[in-house]
């Protein structure tokens, strides 16, 4: 299949184009400067795979949780292509693309993204069964959820940070993390094609990123509204 795939849930931006058995991937670890290169990066990977947007069978994107700015940026770029060429978009959980490669492990898999303010976006799965749904959790909440688990593998972009915060509390149990990152766009493409195979519907026009918490701007606005109503 021919596809354009974007993972923009964290500051490391991953963009891939897939032309049947040929794939081109570009990864940009450039912090919050994603908006400066996303359009040229899309053109680059499509060109390297000898593709134009109208030839795509589908597009795939990390649906969230993650960076508010990054998620909106990828959605905006793909929605423009969808509107112009009627190419369907499939969204996949940002946490699932990190945990899925370890699905066959006998460990409980905790996928995490640092949500700042001493919180983590996280979920826990084992053998394709959801133990803890995608959510915005404090460290103490995660400790409570995993206290009875015998073996835990922590994955995701912020696995090392979370491991360092948990290891002393669970020193008597098996707790570890992968040493290297996987290429998330490969998993994202696989899971999107599973959705297509299972005849799942693509994202509707009105569907956008999954945030799990209010943005800083929304919080400030609500505070001002509350002050004005006093």
Describe this structure in words.
The protein has 230 residues and is an alpha/beta fold. Helices cover 33% and strands 30% of the residues. It has seven helices and ten strands. It has helices at residues 38-48, 68-85, 96-99, 139-146, 159-166, 184-197, 216-228; strands at residues 2-7, 12-19, 22-29, 58-64, 89-93, 108-116, 119-126, 129-138, 151-155, 174-176. The strands form two sheets. It has a five-stranded mixed β-sheet, with helices on both faces. Strands 8-7-6-9-10 form a five-stranded mixed β-sheet. The termini are far apart.
How many helices? 7
The biggest sheet amounts to: 5 strands, mixed
Give the integer mean of the pLDDT values.
91
Ranges where pLDDT stays below 50 over 5 or more residues in a row are: none
H-E order: EEEHEHEHEEEHEHEHH
| DSSP summary, beta strand count | 10
**Spatial ordering of strands, largest sheet:** 3-2-1-4-5
Distance between the termini: 58 Å
Share of helix, binned: 25-40%
Shape: globular
As a whole number of angstroms, the C-alpha radius of gyration is 19 Å
Could you give a quick summary of the protein structure above?
With 230 residues, the chain is an alpha/beta fold. It has helices at 38-48, 68-85, 96-99, 139-146, 159-166, 184-197, 216-228, and strands at 2-7, 12-19, 22-29, 58-64, 89-93, 108-116, 119-126, 129-138, 151-155, 174-176.
């Amino acid at each position: 299949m021919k596809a354009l795939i974007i993972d923009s849930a964290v500051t490391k931006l991953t963009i891939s184009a897939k032309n049947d058995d040929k794939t081109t991937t570009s990864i940009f670890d450039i912090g919050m400067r994603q908006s400066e290169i996303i359009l040229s990066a899309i053109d680059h990977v499509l060109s390297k795979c000898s593709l134009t947007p109208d030839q795509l069978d589908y597009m795939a994107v990390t649906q969230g949780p993650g960076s508010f700015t990054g998620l909106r940026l990828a959605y905006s770029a793909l929605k423009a292509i969808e509107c112009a060429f009627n190419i369907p978009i499939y969204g996949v959980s940002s946490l699932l693309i990190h945990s899925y490669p370890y699905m066959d492990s006998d460990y409980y898999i905790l996928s995490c993204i640092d949500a700042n303010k001493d919180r983590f976006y996280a979920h826990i799965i084992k053998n394709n069964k959801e133990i803890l749904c995608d959510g915005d959790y404090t460290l103490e909440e995660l400790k409570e959820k995993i206290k009875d688990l015998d073996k835990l593998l922590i994955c995701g972009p912020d696995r090392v940070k979370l491991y360092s915060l948990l290891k002393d509390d669970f020193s008597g149990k098996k707790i570890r993390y992968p040493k290297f990152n996987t290429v998330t766009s490969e998993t994202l493409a696989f899971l999107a094609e599973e959705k297509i195979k299972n005849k799942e519907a693509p994202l509707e026009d009105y569907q956008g990123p999954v945030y799990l918490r209010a943005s800083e701007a929304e919080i400030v606005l609500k505070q001002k509204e509350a002050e004005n109503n006093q």
